[in-house]
Write a structure and sequence with these properties.
By secondary structure, this protein is of the alpha/beta class. It has helices at about 15, 25-40, 50-60, 65-70, 80-90, 95-120, 125-135, 135-145, 150-170, 170-190, 195-205, 210-235, 250-260, 265-280, 290-310, 325-340, 345-360, 365-370, 380-390, 405-410, 425-430, 440-450, 470, 475-485; strands at about 395-400, 420, 425, 435, 455-460, 485-495, 500-505.
């Protein structure tokens, strides 16, 4: 047998010795962590937050009672994340602080991916898997975003690693840790509960003994019980994702490229290595085999969410980031089968690292695009900057549509001293993301009472105002009718995704 062939130890104490982080094992885990940290910190401050990040920024700056009030109305699925971010935003509310937890979480996931590979195969398999995870552009995207998805991926990776330990040592402590990890991960985003289905398939394929099923079942039930209240509340807030559509071929293809690409050459290489891993699996070195862990992790949650979304559209690639670690594990296993034929261990390790470096260079343009200010679509900082240069204290402002008030919530210093013409109750006081607005009749009264020389600024979204969708929004369209009846547009400054217009009395 070749160097990659090893005899599985007998059940019991033999398994406990596998994967201890000493020597090469420690280096195999720490190297992906360092690479992911470097990639995560590269270009972290893009000069603007985007819509979803801005929600984190403005909600996390509220008091805990105000956050709790919001969660009863909207965004309950992100509640734990907002509460975790609250003390950080109290220390320093800027882009770097906002995104740093995601960078650290992505680095932890890269290290845990490597640790799982080390435990299930050997150090170089873990090293390659962790590095492949770190250089994936889809990972970099969410490693540099102030949302919960990178933390969810880290929680899923930790739960997977704890599953391995619990199967090796079926004790109350390990199963309690596993159940806690799954519960917290699912509270960060409830679709992460699909991780339990992947782990269940892993145990089924591995034919584990009854005592393992008993421990896993208790942990799974406990995690689901913790998640149940959030599931009930978030179901009542499903209108938030009403914009999602039933997934089809394009969504499935996009997820495949996100997980294993995005370039065609890298995708082809990943699929070839995965096929090798599945056709010629690595020998089992413990209670679980690598394919039995990695394949369900990469396949089961996306498949279940895709099928469920045919009835209620909820399929989005970022909801499944926690499944991605299964792909580099499979690719690394395939690489082990091919590079393991080389006669010298160090040559094989170096060849694998070089292959990862080549994949990174092939995807460098995609990595660079992730660091551009426009990589997420909208750039509210540009609109806020334009407004800050034009307005002066005592002016009045109107937002079209109402959610454009988010810009003043993201960058409040740009709107200091302005009178918000349509605001009835602030976002924090009303327990909403953008505040409650007055009626069109009340807006007419406020405009009529303004001094003739008082300036009115309209901050508006160029992608929606004037469209069929906007005209169908009665409250929004009514605001424009009232404004046009009393005021006329004098000048407009356009920026990417938005505009600031000056209106004067007719």
């Amino acid at each position: 047998m070749g160097e990659t062939e090893r005899t599985a130890p007998a059940p019991g104490r033999g398994w406990s010795r596998l994967g201890r982080p000493r020597g090469g094992r420690a280096a195999a885990v720490l190297a992906p962590v360092a690479v992911m940290l470097a990639l995560g910190l590269w270009g972290l401050d893009r000069g603007t937050v985007w819509r979803d990040e801005g929600a984190t920024l403005q909600v996390a700056r509220r008091s805990v009672p105000e956050i709790w009030h919001l969660l009863g109305n909207v965004d309950a699925v992100h509640g734990l994340y907002y509460l975790l971010m609250h003390p950080l935003m109290a220390l320093r509310a800027d882009e770097t602080t906002l995104r740093l937890p995601s960078v650290l979480a992505a680095a932890a996931t890269a290290g845990l991916t490597a640790a799982v590979g080390v435990r299930l195969a050997r150090p170089r398999v873990g090293l390659w898997a962790g590095l492949l995870y770190a250089v994936t552009p889809f990972v970099s995207h969410y490693a540099q975003e102030g949302r919960s998805y990178a933390l969810v991926a880290a929680g899923a990776a930790l739960a997977t690693w704890l599953l391995l330990r619990a199967v090796e040592h079926p004790s109350y402590g390990w199963w309690a840790g596993y159940g806690a990890a799954v519960a917290v991960t699912a509270l960060l985003h409830e679709f992460a509960v699909l991780l339990l289905a992947a782990h269940g398939v892993t145990l089924l394929a591995s034919r584990v003994p009854w005592r393992v099923w008993r421990g896993w079942g208790c942990a799974a039930v406990a995690a689901c019980a913790v998640l149940a209240p959030l599931a009930v509340v978030s179901r009542g807030q499903s209108e938030q994702v009403s914009w999602l559509r039933t997934p089809g071929y394009e969504q499935a293809r996009a997820l495949l490229y996100a997980f294993a690409g995005p370039g065609d050459a890298v995708l082809a290489g990943t699929l070839v290595l995965t096929a090798v891993a599945l056709l010629v699996p690595l020998p089992r070195t413990g209670p679980l085999q690598l394919n039995a862990v990695a394949l369900p992790l990469a396949l089961i949650p996306p498949l279940l969410l895709y099928v469920a979304a045919q009835r209620q559209p909820l399929f989005l690639d970022r909801y499944l980031l926690f499944s991605l670690m299964g792909v580099p594990l499979l690719a690394a296993a395939g690489a082990e089968r091919l590079l393991g034929l080389l006669p010298w261990r160090r040559v094989a390790i170096t060849a694998g690292v070089v292959a990862v470096a080549v994949a990174f260079m092939a995807q460098l343009p995609a990595q660079e695009r992730e660091r551009l200010p426009a990589s997420r679509g909208d750039q509210p900082a540009l609109v806020a900057s334009a407004a800050g240069k034009l307005v002066r204290p005592g002016d009045a402002v109107l937002f079209l549509p109402h959610y454009e008030r988010r810009i003043s919530l993201f960058y409040p210093d740009r709107f200091t001293g302005l009178s918000d013409l349509t605001l009835r109750r602030s976002a924090a006081a009303s327990g909403t993301l953008f505040g409650e607005e007055v009626t069109a009749a009340r807006l007419r009264e406020r405009l009529s009472r303004l001094a003739p020389r008082r300036r009115v600024w309209v901050v508006w979204d160029t992608s929606t105002v004037g469209t069929r969708w906007f005209r169908a929004q009665r409250a929004e369209f009514a605001k424009t009718q009232v404004l046009d009846a009393l005021y006329r547009e004098e000048s407009t400054v356009y920026v990417h995704g938005g505009a600031v217009s000056l209106y004067v009395r007719r």
